[in-house]
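Throughout our pipeline, every protein is held as a single compact record rather than as scattered files. Nothing more is needed to write down the fold, since each code stands for a local backbone conformation. For reference, a complete record is included directly beneath this paragraph.
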Amino acid sequence: MAKRPWRIFRQIERAYTRFSYSKKLNRIPGAPVTKLRVQVMGEVNRPLRDWKYAGHLISLLNIQISDYSLEAVRINLLKYLENEVKNFLFIIRKYPHHVVREHPIVYGGMGVAADRISQGMRLSFGKPKYRAAQIYRGDIILSIYFDNENFISIVKNLLRIARNKLSGNYFEYVGENIDENEIVKKIS
């Protein structure tokens, strides 16, 4: 079956989680592995307050973002950062914990065997198919820290590329490395 378009899963829904005091039972069976491999890249050992400039991508909507698109943004931005900026710290702040379920409904196109695949609304909660990060208004999705003032225009362009790869509306901040809470208060 083909992959469904992400616009059907874009709205935030109740988190599909399983809680148990037993560690063995405290997981979702059949949940896919996340595609997001690395979250912190660049000069990892340097503290955040030591960087002179920062660039943040801040969400303006409540939205779900797939792990595929977060990984695509990570790969694309890291390629440019390693070639152009070189001295940086790149952090993806949101992790795709949410398991998205899909109910495979077959419509009239299958013909004879359609009744064996689709059972209507019986057990309609679906099977775990994808992972998503649930992002709320004012959440910082990714951050880029750097020292050289000449790279401000490059980082602005990279945040624009990231904004175009992700669904939803975002605010791009590039400037002095100040407290993130102050930046979020400015846009609210």
Q: What stands out?
A: The longest strand covers residues 127-135. The mean pLDDT is 86. Helices lie at 67-85, 114-117, 152-165, 180-187.
